[in-house]
Amino acid sequence: MRVGRSLTALAAVVPLVWAAAGCSSNPGGTVAASRRAQVVQQIVNPQPGKCHTFVPLGVDRVNNETGMDIRLHVGRDCKDPAGRSSFYLPATLSTTSVPGQALWHSFSTVGWLAPVPAA
To answer: pTM of the predicted model, to two decimals?
Structure first.
C-alpha cells in the first residue's frame, strides 16, 4: 500500500506541533484575589519569573487557578519585611489569611511546568 505525500508530511509535522505546545513557558490560568469576600482583581496568565502586584490596599484571599505554584508576599515588590516569610500557594489551590495577619500585596511564581515529552 502506498502512502500519499500529504499523509507523510502530516505524520512528520504533528509530533513537532505537539513538542512546541509542550514547551510553552506559560502554563496559563488565573490568579483571583479578594478582599473581604469581594473579588478585587484577576490576573490572567501571570508570567513566570516576574513579580505581580495586587491592588494597593492588599488582599486577604487568593485563588491560584494556574498550573504553577506561587509565593504570596506582604511587600509590594515581592519582598517581605524582616522577620516575615512569604506564603507558598501550590497550583490549583486557594488560601485565606487569618485575622490579624498582614494582607498580601504581591506574588511571584515558583518555577513553571516542565515541557511535556513528545511521544
So the answer is: 0.71
Alpha carbons within 13 A on the beta-carbon side of 31: 29
Is there a contact between 68 and 26 (Cβ–Cβ < 8 Å)? no
pLDDT at residue 12 in the model? 55
CATH of the domain at 38: 2.60.20
CB-based contacts of 34, cutoff 8 Å, min separation 6: 40, 59, 60, 61, 62, 63
The count of C-alpha atoms lying within 13 angstroms of the C-alpha of 24, restricted to the half-sphere facing its C-beta, is 11
Residue 11 lies in a domain: no
Distance CA 111, CA 108 (A): 9
